[in-house]
């Protein structure tokens, strides 16, 4: 197919004229950016002629953007002479809800810069000299496989399987065989590895769910919001974090356009969602949602606006009368509001205003409006929970949905993040049998403690699961599709010190296709293919009530000496004598056939391999209409109890009360605590501490449009379109003599970042945001000129989840003179 014909197709769908498409192509593109990159790689030069005409492609194949933004966009790659010359978006679907054209965002369309990036790892590398010292030697694949297999054997024989660790990494989340599954399967086949619970995204809310709802239960879909009178979004930002025509962005805009549902966004930032889909913005100090909610519920109760009947029938612990047996007197939420609890403070709007920065009159108005809207869809993104006390923020937002009686009804919701409809596409198995062989788990964020002193980690101090304490620390790490060894993990300096000592963690293998800050700390670094260099059945994703799957075709041969994860693991399995168990006698192609077979058993109308290769995308709209969470429970709570101990929604959790007596928070963590109620807890480096600290600004780290975490952060076009910068309010900037675009230093006791100021009223006073994911690039003085926010963040796991508080830190900002 020629490109001109494809442009014609797009034109129908997007209204883009050929002229503007060409302009876009040149700007986002390709020629200027591609040629030097290709030259760097020593590959034949491609002339995609930009404005003067378009290169003819030999073929067009389907694949997808697999980065972890959770949108999952199909891409059509045009290939000429073995080189990807152009990346086009989805050409199927329409603008109708449930049939959306899944149009890739700027990042997806910039894939060529990534495939042909000068940062691509060319061949296996071995560290020489000190770990992290920056000296490397190229080695053969044979040597790499032999070394990894013998290190796995040595560590297993010396310390046992619990000393092996598969590191958290989200770089190829959207894949299936190309996902992060191959390495876990290898490790599980070899007897297993120390497990992990939680993730870097949602640890606190994941830990909060069981104590309120018994398990993770996503809210109604955003498509269902068409039946709402009001949407209230707490730190939920689909327009930036669910970009593309297949993301929730499309659903939110469609609901807004067709149904004009009033929308309030509660966020320290005037996000794109607030700006484009919001009617009202409530700027709030980070980490204080539970205080805002207490202030609002105080108003509702005082004015009789809450849904007492719902609380009586479905909930535990709002009132003294529904507290579980054995709960101390005055431990209900009502007693907390009245100041009869242990803190003795009444939770008036004035009290909440002091903490949150939202004026008391505004809190009253907001409370009345939310209580009056029937039904109201209350959702939260994951920004509010990625905090020092994020578990309580998440639970407080659940509570607001319960107090207003919005749970289990169309147009309502349970205060969690929106749910959606997915297709049950078969996943590549991480292990055979019922469960992975090793049952012991730590929080995925706690690995650094397990390297420093694993055996000191216990159930009540570190949340270790499956055992009272660890017997051994992490001695070997497989770090695949991850930059969380350095860039994406809080407090880069502490991590580097720990890793430098290779008597602690004795062996680290990193697998990636870009040379990241994480690669710097490997002992062996392996060059992976991108997903465009291998085959897959991509499970797709979902938005609203539409799910889809994408054909993963191989567009080009592996670049340089890169290999697929499946090939790497098969080679290592052979050396460990477990090849047959690992592969089940299948090639990657045969695994894909198996995935198709298995999926077609579950979804009879799912296309065959040949059909999907042609179609590219298979989409399906929910046949039962928009998702309404907890409908069964609402209809009949006796027949359909929740998985909580009481079977009801637990506003007061007896389990948490008991844990609060037992769990230990020694030393630096002595200020942490667990609470039976979703109450506001002043945190370390939180809103109150900011007022007396020498670092008086609360620094959050929103997820940014030009990258998915650190993925795409090295692409010139993305950096031009979405440069790194610090958002700072004009009030705070003026006080420091800072003007827009000034070079600034952002610092605290842990580190210093150099970046530029974006002086904007789009962020609350007293708050700054340095979008996470920029590449760490320290200069000779240790100042990070790349602008990585984790240079500033603290390593301090949250109290219940032991999760990542990636939006909690205090900083000071000064102009560079
Ligand atoms: N473009 C893009 N999209 C992405 C990603 C990306 O890096 N770039 N990352 C993907 C991944 S892995 C994930 S986990 C999701 C993350 O999705 P989220 O966690 O929802 O994204 P964040 O930007 O961290 O936070 C959402 C909003 O919460 C606000 N916020 C921060 N602290 C608070 C608070 O205390 N209270 C309130 N009310 N609001 C607060 C932030 O300003 C932000 O606008 O996004 C995914 N999508
Ligand atoms: N302070 C702060 N820190 C944060 C956050 C925050 O809000 N604040 N957000 C956190 C969140 S939500 C998350 S999910 C994490 C994300 O952190 P990570 O999971 O580390 O995600 P990325 O930074 O995108 O890095 C993914 C890597 O995978 C590589 N990759 C891509 N495809 C493949 C492949 O097919 N094979 C291999 N081998 N490699 C591949 C990419 O090149 C990239 O280097 O960051 C967390 N860090
Ligand atoms: Mo995430």
Automatic annotation (TrEMBL):
Keyword line: Iron, Iron-sulfur, Metal-binding, Molybdenum, Oxidoreductase, Signal
Domain of life: Bacteria
Gene Ontology biological process terms from the UniProt entry: anaerobic respiration
GO CC terms of this entry: outer membrane-bounded periplasmic space
InterPro entries: Anaer_DMSO_reductase, Asp_de-COase-like_dom_sf, MoPterin_dinucl-bd_dom, Mopterin_OxRdtase, Mopterin_OxRdtase_4Fe-4S_dom, Mopterin_OxRdtase_prok_CS, Prok_Mopterin_Oxidored, TAT_signal
A Pfam family: Molybdop_Fe4S4
GO MF terms, alphabetically ordered: 4 iron, 4 sulfur cluster binding; dimethyl sulfoxide reductase activity; electron transfer activity; molybdenum ion binding; molybdopterin cofactor binding
SMART domains recorded: Molybdop_Fe4S4
Organism from which the protein derives: Tessaracoccus oleiagri
UniProt protein name: Anaerobic dimethyl sulfoxide reductase subunit A
Domain 4Fe-4S Mo/W bis-MGD-type: 58-119
Family: Belongs to the prokaryotic molybdopterin-containing oxidoreductase family.
CDD domains: MopB_CT_DmsA-EC (cd02794), MopB_DmsA-EC (cd02770)
SUPFAM superfamilies the UniProt entry points to: ADC-like, Formate dehydrogenase/DMSO reductase, domains 1-3
Cofactor(s) this protein cannot do without: Mo-bis(molybdopterin guanine dinucleotide)
């Amino acid at each position: 197919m020629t490109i001109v014909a494809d442009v014609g197709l797009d034109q129908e769908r997007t209204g883009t004229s050929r002229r503007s498409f060409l302009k876009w192509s040149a700007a986002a593109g390709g020629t200027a950016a591609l040629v030097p990159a290709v030259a760097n790689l020593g590959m034949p030069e491609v002339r995609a002629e930009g404005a003067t005409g378009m290169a003819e492609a030999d073929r067009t194949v389907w694949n997808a953007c697999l980065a972890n933004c959770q949108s999952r966009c199909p891409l059509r790659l045009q290939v000429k002479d073995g080189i990807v010359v152009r990346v086009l978006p989805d050409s199927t679907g329409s603008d109708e809800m449930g049939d959306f054209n899944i149009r890739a965002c700027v990042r997806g369309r910039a894939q060529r810069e990534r495939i042909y990036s000068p940062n691509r790892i060319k061949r296996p590398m071995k560290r020489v000299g000190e770990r992290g010292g920056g000296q490397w030697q190229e080695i053969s694949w044979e040597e790499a496989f032999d070394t990894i297999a013998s290190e796995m054997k040595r560590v297993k024989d010396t310390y046992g399987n619990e000393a092996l660790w598969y590191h958290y990494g989200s770089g190829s989340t959207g894949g299936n065989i190309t996902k992060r599954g191959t390495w876990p399967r290898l490790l599980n086949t070899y007897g297993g590895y120390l497990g992990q619970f939680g993730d870097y995204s949602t640890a606190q809310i994941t830990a909060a769910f069981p104590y309120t709802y018994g398990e993770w239960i996503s809210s109604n879909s955003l498509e269902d919001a068409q039946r709402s009178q009001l949407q209230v979004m707490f730190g939920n930002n689909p327009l930036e974090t669910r970009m593309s025509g297949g993301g929730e962005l499309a659903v939110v805009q469609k609901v807004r356009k067709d149904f004009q549902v009033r929308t309030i966004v509660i966020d320290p930032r005037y996000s794109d969602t607030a700006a484009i889909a919001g009617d009202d913005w409530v700027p709030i100090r980070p980490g204080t949602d539970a205080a805002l909610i207490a202030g609002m519920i105080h108003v509702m109760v005082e004015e009789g606006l809450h849904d007492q009947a719902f609380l009586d029938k479905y909930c535990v612990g709002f009132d003294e009368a529904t507290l579980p047996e054995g709960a101390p007197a005055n431990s209900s939420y009502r007693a907390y509001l009245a100041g009869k609890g242990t803190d003795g403070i009444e939770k008036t709007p004035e009290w909440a205003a002091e903490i949150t920065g939202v004026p008391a009159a505004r809190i009253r108005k907001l409370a009345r409006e939310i209580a009056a809207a029937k039904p109201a869809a209350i959702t939260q993104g994951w920004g509010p929970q990625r905090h020092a006390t994020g578990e309580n923020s998440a639970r407080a937002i659940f509570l607001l949905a319960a107090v207003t009686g919005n749970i289990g009804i169309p147009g309502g919701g349970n205060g969690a993040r929106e749910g959606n409809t997915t297709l049950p596409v078969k996943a590549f198995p991480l292990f055979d049998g019922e469960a992975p062989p090793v049952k012991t788990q730590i929080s995925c964020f706690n690995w650094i403690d397990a390297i420093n002193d694993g055996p000191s980690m216990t159930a009540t101090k570190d949340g270790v699961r499956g055992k009272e304490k660890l017997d051994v620390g992490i001695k070997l790490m497989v770090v695949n599709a991850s930059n969380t060894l350095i860039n994406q993990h809080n407090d880069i300096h502490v991590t580097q010190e720990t890793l430098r000592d290779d008597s602690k963690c004795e062996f680290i293998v990193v697998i990636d296709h870009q040379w990241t800050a994480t690669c710097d700390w490997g002992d062996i670094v392996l060059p992976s293919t991108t997903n465009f260099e291998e085959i897959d059945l991509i499970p797709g994703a979902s938005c609203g009530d539409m799910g889809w799957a994408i054909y993963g075709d191989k567009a080009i041969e592996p670049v340089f000496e890169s290999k697929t994860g499946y090939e790497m693991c098969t080679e290592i399995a052979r050396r460990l004598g477990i090849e047959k168990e690992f592969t089940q006698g299948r090639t990657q192609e045969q695994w894909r056939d198996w995935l198709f077979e298995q999926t077609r058993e579950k979804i009879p109308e799912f296309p065959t391999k040949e059909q999907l290769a042609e179609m590219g995308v298979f989409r399906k709209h929910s046949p039962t209409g928009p998702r309404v969470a907890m409908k069964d429970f609402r209809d009949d709570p006796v027949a359909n109890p929740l998985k909580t101990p009481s079977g009801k929604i637990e506003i007061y959790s007896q389990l948490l009360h008991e844990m609060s007596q037992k769990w230990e928070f020694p030393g630096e963590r002595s200020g942490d605590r667990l609470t039976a109620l979703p109450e506001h807890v002043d945190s370390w480096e939180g809103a109150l501490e900011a007022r007396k600290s020498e670092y008086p600004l609360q620094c959050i780290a929103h997820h940014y449009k030009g990258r998915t975490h650190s993925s795409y952060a090295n692409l010139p076009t993305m950096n031009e379109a979405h440069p790194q910068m610090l958002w700072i309010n004009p009030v705070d900037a003026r006080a420091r003599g800072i003007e827009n675009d000034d070079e600034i230093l952002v610092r605290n006791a842990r580190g210093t970042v150099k970046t530029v100021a974006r002086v904007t009223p789009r962020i609350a006073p007293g708050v700054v945001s340095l979008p996470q994911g920029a590449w760490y690039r320290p200069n000779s003085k240790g100042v990070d000129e790349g602008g990585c926010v984790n240079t500033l963040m603290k390593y301090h796991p949250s109290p219940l989840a032991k999760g990542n508080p990636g939006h909690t830190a205090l900083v000071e900002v000064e102009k560079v003179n």
